Fold this sequence. Notes:
By secondary structure, chain A is α/β, with parallel strands linked by helices. Chain A is 42% helix and 12% strand. Chain A binds chain B through residues 33, 97-100, 109-111, 138, 147, 166, 168-169, 204, 208, 210-212, 236-238, 281-284, 286, 354-356, and chain B through 58, 61-63, 103, 105-106, 108-109, 112, 130, 155-159, 184-185, 187, 189-190, 193, 202-203.
Amino acid sequence: MHMKHVELLTAKQVERVHEASLWVLENVGVLAHHAPAREVFKAHGCSVDADGLVKFPPTVVAKYVQACPSSFTFRGRDPQYDRTIPDCGPVVVTGSSAPNVVDPATGVERRATSTDIANIAHLINELKGFDIFSISTLADDAPPGQFSLSRFYPALKNCLKPVRSNTPNMDDLRQVIRLGELIAGGADAYRERPIINHHYCPMVSPLTMDIDSTEAVMYLTERGLPVYTTVVPNAGLTSPMTLMGTLIVGNAEFLAITVFQQMVKEGTPIIYASLPTVADMRTGAYAPGAIETGMLCMAQAQLGHFYNVPTGGYIGLTNAHSNDAQSGYETGMNTLGAVLAGATLLNMGGLFSSLMAFDFGKAVVDDEIALMNKRVVRGLEFSEDSLALDVIAQAGPGGDYMKSKHTKSLMKTTALFPKVADRGMRAQWEAAGRPDAQSRARAVARGILSQPNPAVWAPDLDARIRAELPGLVAGDAVWAEAEGDA
Amino acid sequence: MGNEAMYEQLKQAIVDQDADAVLEAVNEALAEGIDPRDVINKGLLPGLNVIGEQFESEDIFLPELMQAALAFQAAMTVLEPAIKEAGGADEKKGTIVIGTVKGDLHSIGKNILKLLFETSGFEVHDLGIDVDLFKFIDKANEVNADIIAISALLTTTLIGQRDVIDALKDQGTRDKYKVMVGGGATTQEWAETIGADGWSGSAYDAVVKATELVS
């Protein structure tokens, strides 16, 4: 589909951002806390001082950026759900790692559990707008030593789409890979087709590489396992109080981590992923729902085109604490902007209060927003046929299209059929008790979750996994029907 | 200049968020023989109170609050030795050990809070980022802290806050310290779940909470 992407910057300005990022990397540098990472930089042409300050010669950056492939593939248990960007873009990914969930029965926020993850996995498996399940919450019921397994196991068990998330340390990462190997039927089979997609934030703004995430990224990159990273500059606190300055810090950080990954293994697929924000200077509050986030993502999409890599990131978060107007306009406006600029990955979906709590109704509304955005990208479907001149001639002036075969043949595919948006008459709405978007969304979620989950793997596979990894949480999608609507 | 006018000048310099003007006024006041403790209590603190009110009503923003706090901190580098010289006791509100939890390298919020704690009269020992749980406890023992304040931004490092509290319980020293938790990943409910003594959503409220906890 031909879509001329919205460009907030001119081509010259994009080049200037690139140049300026090179200047930052050469003169300001990046502080690398992880000793092995320092060695990688040193061995590939960067200077590293005694404190771990890395400086990048522009020729080194150019060499390794050129090594980046132009696409990235997410794999799921069922290959029909694999997604490669940018071609399949925009792909929509749920937001990850919230500690809390809004209890679907009581409406009260509480710590999330592995059962919640199983239910969410089931929901995301069924909602057509979502492509990738990034594990939405933590699991408070994780047995000791199984922090990440208690998240990945219920997620993979209940979702055929690609699963993506992070791990806090190497023990957890190895356990998660072991789980992947068990699912695949062995280490070799897993290496052939790795179905767990990893994500980390090794860059801490400004211009710093941490230890734990960097270690994980290095480990996965060395082994050719899929991993991508997100840079997170926050204007006024961890980057300059200008959008351009924030764009540059983020871009320098993107280049640093990208170059690092290519140094570890040339040709590693990456994504230019970011969650760029402007802190609310009244209080310092974190504000990813702000329109400035969308704008910065739009500019980053241009930079991604410049580097010929897929772009996207955490676009579509909301600061709202409920499925209200703020939640709608923050998620809706920011994601549409990103899509119009050519972002190919939207980490949006289901979270309130930035990244704090998952809500089933919000996930359904976000699914609808995702489908609306994808409809835009699908475009007007220009063809001589779609001009429908013969149909116009046939109906004639004052004619009726309702009865035509042409209309009947296309009525299910031309436009979206939203599940949440209400298009009925006001009187019907009054009669139904004035249901709002949240209650309609939750009804959709209940409808899906009260059915058995078709994605659950075979019992013998489950038995094999549970035998190898004793003490695992049950990980089943269990939906208790609640009275009324909370 | 009479004392009243001097106090007014000190107060205004803080309200103006002007570190240079504050230092000038402080040195002038000390030269006039004003007791350094009066310089703080009758001059600078009233200025900080005005700043506090302006911040709460959003007449000034966070960076301006920080400027005023930094101006006060600059003044304290002159006043603290002056107080010691005059034989005055350290009238601190309490002692706090602060740090960002293990595995987490984020520090901005913690640094803002540290400055505000110091500005309101606490002695603060900052352990920095990625702090091992026993480092929190060892430092608290060493400096006889009143409060251990633990920050976490990443949701995946949150349990580090619970680990500190559990370790104190195991050692039988839970009651020796008040534990406050904060940071982007935390909530009141999390704090209650892990048995923390206090939680705040903002640096500003954390100072209020800490003051409550030591009184």
